[in-house]
Design brief:
The chain contains 19 helices and no strands. With about 450 residues, it is mainly alpha-helical. It has a single domain, classed as Up-down Bundle (Amino acid/polyamine transporter I). The protein is globular, with a radius of gyration of 22 Å. The chain starts with 9 loop residues before the first helix and ends in a 15-residue tail after the last helix.
């Protein structure tokens, strides 16, 4: 896209990926899965990374071979179907900006309010969203710098907690390692895969990454081992620092443990540097990548061109960023269930994986030269294995999230989200055809970069 600058090196991209991956899930799912698997929690975290890592490899291949802005839309729109790609982004954008960002910002405010109870949750949430809006408005490089600082503090807080628990490790707490059974272990592993999602966001940044052909796959190969080690350290501290049966009874097991073996200052560092920054790194990453697919959609004439204006000084899509900010503020001040919208967002984010995986499967046949020249590629059966693992993971996640929506009304509202995107695309396609622009031509584009 004209106006966007290649300013992100390997460290910046890795920090974005790590920040995107380590979110509030490690605080939520650790307690849930601890009750299910008991002392086998570290093993569950170690196994959970495998299907997510395998399913991300096709994305790393596409990002390496044909790096581009807005890969989550661009790859399927050129290789599968522009309509399917558009509707996937439509669902994800609506639910993320109106649901996920408000949910994360309000959750941050709640953690902060444990030290400042007089704080207004909505005011604090609005202030956080506004802060990241301004940072990203000024430029992607400042946003990436802020992300790097936050991720370093986040990792420090999680490792500080982990080592404080591990030095109190009692091997007796691991007795009867599989007492909860292998069935519970498998379900726990499946749930913990949620905590490894997010790094697919970096394929949105192909047009702003330096040497993306090698940087994107390297970022994946650094991110997953780092996150896995951190998660397993947290898990060992959780089951070893205190009898897990006692910890599992707590609503916030990690916060409970921190108060058990850390000083007051240590607890504050863990909550603010760990719990809060786990959420804010994801918030910032959502602002960093949130406009990229929309820019390509605008370039394809599926949204009005004025929305994609790039600021001449900062090189950022200021109008789109402002719209994200306004939608997020609207979500914060509304009294709607943010948890429901977060489920919609997760469902939308999972669904857009499907056409990307199909695109990866078709890529070697559609672009054989680019496939051969790719710095990183999946060869032979590995491509099919990774895609199949991704398909199975998508199916599982969709079933879990649909069950989590609970009511027919919530499921029906998601269907309305989908149909609104389908209807808009159909009307826009008809309008563009009247102007001599045919959406079918999108699949003939080779505008990578």
């Amino acid at each position: 896209m004209n106006g966007l600058k290649r300013v992100l090196g390997l460290p910046a991209v890795t920090f974005i990926a790590v920040g995107f991956t380590i979110g509030g899930g490690v605080f939520v799912f650790t307690g849930i899965v601890l009750k299910m698997v008991g002392p086998a929690l570290p093993l569950a975290y170690g196994l959970a990374v495998i299907p997510v890592f395998l399913s991300m490899l096709p994305l790393a291949m596409l990002g390496s071979a044909i790096p581009s802005v807005g890969g989550n839309y661009k790859y399927p729109s050129r290789m599968v179907s522009p309509g399917i790609a558009f509707v996937g982004i439509w669902i994800y954008v609506l639910a993320t900006f109106f649901g996920q960002i408000p949910l994360y910002s309000i959750s941050c405010a709640r953690y902060i309010s444990t030290f400042y109870p007089e704080l207004s949750l909505k005011f604090c949430a609005i202030a956080l969203v506004t802060l990241f809006y301004i940072v990203n408005l000024v430029g992607i490089k400042p946003a990436a710098t802020v992300q790097a600082i936050m991720v370093i503090v986040l990792l420090s807080a999680l490792l500080f907690f982990s080592f404080s628990g591990i030095v109190r490790f009692d091997i007796a707490n691991l007795a009867n390692f599989f007492e909860k059974g292998t069935d519970n272990l498998l379900v726990g592993v499946a749930l913990l895969t949620f905590t490894y999602l997010g790094s697919n966001g970096i394929i949105e940044l192909g047009g702003e990454i330096q040497n993306p052909q090698t940087t994107i796959p390297r970022a994946y190969f650094i991110t997953f081992p780092v996150v896995t080690v951190v998660y397993m350290c947290v898990a060992f501290a959780t089951v070893g620092g205190m009898p897990w049966q006692k910890t599992a009874q707590e609503a916030e097991p990690l916060i409970f443990l921190s108060r058990s073996f850390l000083s007051n200052a240590g607890v504050m560092f863990f909550i603010l540097g760990g719990a809060v920054l786990a959420l804010t790194t994801t918030l910032n990453a959502l602002f960093i990548v949130g406009t990229k697919s929309l820019l390509i959609i605008i370039n394809d004439h599926l949204l009005p061109s004025w929305l994609g204006s790039i600021h001449t000084t900062f090189g950022t899509p200021h109008i789109l960023l402002t719209m994200i900010w306004l939608l997020s503020i609207a979500g914060i001040v509304s009294d709607l269930s943010m948890e429901t919208f977060a489920s919609y967002s997760a469902l939308g984010g999972i669904i857009i994986f499907l056409p990307i995986l199909i695109a990866a499967l078709k890529f070697p046949r559609l672009y054989p030269d680019k496939y051969r020249q790719a710095a990183f590629k999946l060869k032979g059966a590995w491509l099919y294995i990774c895609v199949i693992v991704g398909f199975v993971m998508i199916l599982f996640f969709c079933l879990v999230i649909l069950i989590d929506l609970k009511t027919l009304f919530n499921i029906g509202l998601f269907v309305v989200f989908v149909l609104s995107g389908v209807m808009y695309y159909a009307l826009r396609k008809r309008y563009l055809a009247s102007q001599g622009i045919h959406c079918e031509a999108i699949m003939q584009k080779e505008d990578w970069g």
